[in-house]
Amino acid sequence: MSSMPQVEPGLEPGQNLSQAQTQFFIPATASLHERRPRTLKHGDSFAVFDHSGDAIAGIGSPEGLYYRDTRHLSHLYLTINGMRPMLLSSALRDDNTLLTCDLTNPDFYGEDGRVAIEHDLLHMRRTRFLHEAAIYERITLRNFDSVARRATISLAFAADFADLFEIRGMTRLRKGEMLPAEVGADAVRLGYRGRDELLRQTHLRFDPKPDHLTESEARFEIDLRPGERCTLFLRATCDDAEAADAPLPKEFLRALRGKMQDARAARSRGGTLRSSNSLFNEVTQRSVADIDMLSTQTEYGPYPYAGIPWFSTIFGRDAIITALETLWLDPAIGRGVLGYLAAHQATAFDAASDAEPGKILHEVRHGEMAELGEVPFRHYYGSIDSTPLFLMLAGAYLERTGDKDFLASLRPNIQAALDWIDQHGDRDGDGFVEYGRFTDQGLVNQGWKDSHDSVFHADGSIAKGPIALAEVQAYVYGAWTSAAALFAAWGDGTRAADYAARAEQLRERFDAAFFDTQIGTYVLALDGEKKPCRVRSSNAGHVLFTGLALEARAESVVRTLMAPASFSGWGIRTIASTEARYNPMSYHNGSIWPHDNALIAAGFSRYGYRREAKQVFEGLVSAATYVDLLRLPELFCGFPRRRAQGPTFYPVACSPQAWSAGAPLMLIQSFLGLRLDAAEGVARLDNPTLPDLIDDLMLDNIPVGDGRVSIALERMAEKVVARRIGEQRKVGISVTY
Length: 737
Known about the structure:
This protein is α+β, with helices and mostly antiparallel strands. It is 30% helix and 24% strand.
């Protein structure tokens, strides 16, 4: 990600605020965990509301409706008789399609100071969803009193058209022009012309026609007999991409049917899973639903946007890792990610965007600040790992699907990515891939831990670049082994053998340069002078993930990562508690990231350390049970686990976050030792195990090649037995113990 919380505490000595802003910090002026917002997403739009369904404007508030990195609705506030209703409950559907808020009236007082209407007599239900850049809302009001009642329902609204980077904490000296509101009988149009000359608009429409409508409020006077109900409708559309002018009740139902159909199509695309543990089932169902919601349909297929609220856009690294996590369950995501990133691969040098020929995207933004170059992320390539990860995904997709024709269409892009590693990735010719930004506007650190202070030496001093990260070399190893498989599939045995040999040669060179017997693991990185950063970090676990680690080193690496200094009980910390910059409340220097743990656990499983992989799984699933909606956030704090207490939450973590949602799914694959071989038409299970909290697990309708397979796994004494379910025989099952 391109973010770090808390501008002021994060400043380096002698660094001023404007310098810090080039690293695109997120100021932690309010805790997202404290707000526990309700989020909706569809396509290029997303929305953040409080539990009552309101979006309340203010400094530090991320609430509102967003479209293509601009906030199109910054304030939406419901009152009844001038007072805010009391919250009864607030719930998202399990598939994330619908937000329902149940509210009731507070005590209403008369002029004499006495209660004129007691609380809990008028019930309000807000039903809301997001579809095709528009929020649809139905408000139902019912009178449960024994006498007739009059209620004044008011919806206050505003659109600040703020760029997402402004809301994240950046200051702007100049902005565009707010346009006069256009107010009709049942509709209001709010507009803003940016300095990029783009017109951005929000169009609000109401049904029935409000009794009073201004540029900032719609008011309805409602009389209800005992037991009577009435219904109000609202649609707020971004950039006036309106649906047909049908009556809003019909439009609401039409859009809702479309929303539900989209959700059903996404669910039917991949397989499903369920177990004997209902809590585990809820965690995994939420994971799948979050990935479906975060995925935007592009011309290349579904593409998972990184996270809400700060990163609801195209990211290269995040989407590739999410695709790897979910590949066994839904390979269509992998295809969508590969297709999009290949189409947007860099073809020329551009210092401002850190682009080089063959390099894979880091981030895409569409807001005013990106269009004007106030931030470099319009099409930004400043990640050192997206390119080798792209190649890894291509190789994994080949094994998973056998779709050689699709991958052959990407062959020029795959070759360009391989050439980038050789010609640009290895900056000094030492055989390792390093990064360094081309301008002072780019990210200082360009691995997944991209905070300004995330790469340092044992004494805490910041490493100077160009920097060769341990996990990036592991990804290069994975890229070359993938290239060997791809060229073999294309019938080019010479190229296949060459890349296989290069991968093996890298293992020896990497071990000599990166393994440190004193700390018992791989160092975090080599700095620009080739001095090792002798820091115990989670990065070493990624070396196991791709298979770069020598077999003789695996036990020491696993032992270091599972020691109390690194494993908190909830998960493995980014930095061990023994290290100089350890801070369990930091973004990258002691916190716990679910996706990081999923990759590490996959590495444990690869080298035969299934018991440790299960410990990681149980820690993360247990953490999820303490989280609102059973949703694993972007990260949480790295404090030690305490008996009968949940984890400590990070204040500005995104939730949902795609690669966190994918973490439980990859962990399942790891403890099952599951590989889906499309070429052979076989589902392979290598020494499958089940965590203690699960007695049996069902994998249903998993696509393999042009067939599907359902597998039931059951614990029997010390063994996990797998058997086929159903009559489909197109896919074989192979179990080794």
